[in-house]
């Protein structure tokens, strides 16, 4: 079968293991050595060891956070284990699946795979065209064997009908004349089994190549969009953008996407899950350069497939709108600022930076409590994720925001090392505390700050004591979208289907040889032997041989 | 009583029945040992212990009188000592079926009460997964006599159900948006079905190893510690059964992996990201691919490949328990 030298048929009866033929011979010569190495590499044993090695090598990546899937976890790990982390990092423990050692294992495995599959494919093509082999002399030695002795008739007619029966059953057949005057038909079926096996292994190679190339052909970008805002699919408009090696960002599909409304439904009936979100829907409008617009919805588990890109809804939260005025009442800054959710009741943390317009730069670290509740300590907590009683608290800092040198800084972080705290903490000054629609003076006459009410119907600024007021639309929400393009995804799916299909045929199509031999006995009876040989796992072989014998008997006119 | 309470009640009743079935299966094993001892004593008394059947020519009764004789194949897989029919084994099976029906009731009522498929958190996977183990076992029993595995299967299911009922129980809550997908239905169900086949294959592989050791000995029944082993199929037959069970599991697992990737693409925007749960699903897949290869590699058939199947199933259990509960990742759905 042109399989590796240490291949044993998984369906065959185990024999005494013969000694390993691959013992190192002396004096191989250069070519001989190469050939020896190649044979070793493409042997079943090597494939097996590499497979097991691959399984073991994959383990550490689940124990230690990975940069690819959990970058913050890695940073955390470094600060928790300052001594161990650099050591682990030097052996690529935080990039296991792209590491030199992991890659070498799977590349070797695939070299072995190709080296194994190519000769087998060649051989398989030949096998499909060759004749079924000569009938063995002693059929009764085979595991699946049965025989009948018939009165009347002769060997020739018996084999003719056996031949017809086997052909009808999808076997490839060949007639042989034995030395002892017997006639026989040799038949083989189940080439599909080997075909399935080869398709399976080749599709694995295809999958590896597609995945390797696919990563370089597309891109992934992230963008946070507040209700009412529009995102234009250009490089500049992304918050972060990771192009593949072969991707040209000029090729971005020209379209824009507006977040009209972000709906969240919270569970209110089931007390065991009170306040648990049960639906997120981003209502968006897509717009093409030709002016075509369309209303679409994006949900978790239900991305928007648009213009060759896929837009996923990955996160959401509140984006309170804040306006800052100078002491004269002139607006120096106004914006909706996405606050990052910190817990399931959406206590959210955000940063506001006012670089210009005031005497000094101002930075604020704010907490938004959608349904604020004052603890005994005086601190707030949120008790429900929806906007029932929203409160925004802000600690104000002055000094250098550190953004003048042009170095990019995260919009979600404020470095207060070089700044002076004005409110909250140990300053003795109360933090700024606002409900939607309210304003407050910044400390030291630096101006004022307003927490805008996003609800157009909220005419009067709500009174802090007015717990009956409806705040449900007072703060806008934001959605964070992941935009991906991966033109090879269809290929990955195709190879996956080939892998599964190949596997099914190779494991369940029985490949077997059967022989039917007829001999005229001296006493005028005819001895007919039926025998089968499994090639690969074939639990149904015995039954199949019995069934053939039965049907052949019927065809010969045996009464049942 | 509401439906969920009914579900819990059925579950505990099912566990009680599994307990009784377990005891009955254990009694059957004890009885088998007694049978073997009896055979040993008879042999010692000078009688010939009729061991395995050998090839015998049987006269065929063709009404036309034309066939003269047919040859009957020898059964090389027959156990060393044939176990006798046993009433306690029938009781054990009846109890298992009864327990299965109660178990099924528990799963169905849980699903109806929740208004969705009953496999959306660890408690529910525990329930449905073990139900599938029993279902697969009962279906396989229709074709192959694996009743000797009853103690193992009911015991395993009992332990898993106990852990699920005591440690993983959660009230019914609606599905979070991340789990609202048809792929939850497909992916998780197929994974549980695959696990059920692996569980059966695991049991067979363990027995194969034990039987292997027995066969490697001198065959003296008197010295045998677990006497009932002499009534079980040969190691080779156990190996073949394990292989057939495990490859069905492997195919289901392959599908699980792919369905998971398709779902991950819809939910997280990438079909593969080496998330911890993905890593372990991959590891399990590779270990079983290794197992299949081992069966076809000289020097690896038999015990070594059985060890790989055992490692594979251990990884499946690890993936379900430790990875779900203690590893950080995107698959945060244990409900605990
Ligand atoms: C990525 C690595 C590989 C994986 C995941 C893998 C997986 C599998 C699986 C699942 C099967 C059983 C299904 C079937 O027969 O199609 C199989 C069978 C087989 N593989 Fe691989 N394989 C890999 C590499 C290799 C290599 C490198 C070789 C050659 C040295 C090889 C040779 C074989 C052979 C000969 C069989 C048939 C076994 C039998 O007759 O039962 N495979 N492989």
UniProtKB/TrEMBL annotation, chain A:
Residues 44-545 form the ResB-like domain. Its main location: membrane. The keyword Membrane applies. It is found in: Membrane. This is Cytochrome c biogenesis protein. Keywords: Cytochrome c-type biogenesis, Membrane, Transmembrane, Transmembrane helix. The keyword ATP-binding does not apply. Pfam families: ResB. Signal peptide: none annotated. One of its GO terms (biological process) is cytochrome complex assembly. InterPro entries: Cyt_c_bgen_Ccs1/CcsB/ResB (IPR023494), ResB-like_domain (IPR007816). The chain crosses the membrane at residues 46-64, 100-119, 198-220, 490-509. Residues 1-20 are annotated as: Disordered. One of its GO terms (cellular component) is membrane. PANTHER family: CYTOCHROME C BIOGENESIS PROTEIN CCS1, CHLOROPLASTIC. It is a multi-pass membrane protein.
Automatic annotation (TrEMBL), chain B:
InterPro entries: Cyt_c_assembly (IPR002541), Cyt_c_biogenesis_CcsA (IPR017562), Cyt_c_biogenesis_CcsA/CcmC (IPR045062). One of its GO terms (biological process) is cytochrome complex assembly. Keywords: Cytochrome c-type biogenesis, Membrane, Transmembrane, Transmembrane helix. It is found in: Membrane. Residues 121-331 form the Cytochrome c assembly protein domain. It is a multi-pass membrane protein. One of its GO terms (molecular function) is heme binding. The keyword Ribosomal protein does not apply. GO terms for cellular component: plasma membrane. The chain crosses the membrane at residues 6-27, 91-113, 125-142, 149-170, 182-207, 247-264, 279-294, 306-327. Pfam families: Cytochrom_C_asm. NCBIfam families: cytochr_II_ccsB. This is Cytochrome c-type biogenesis protein CcsB. It comes from Mycetocola miduiensis.
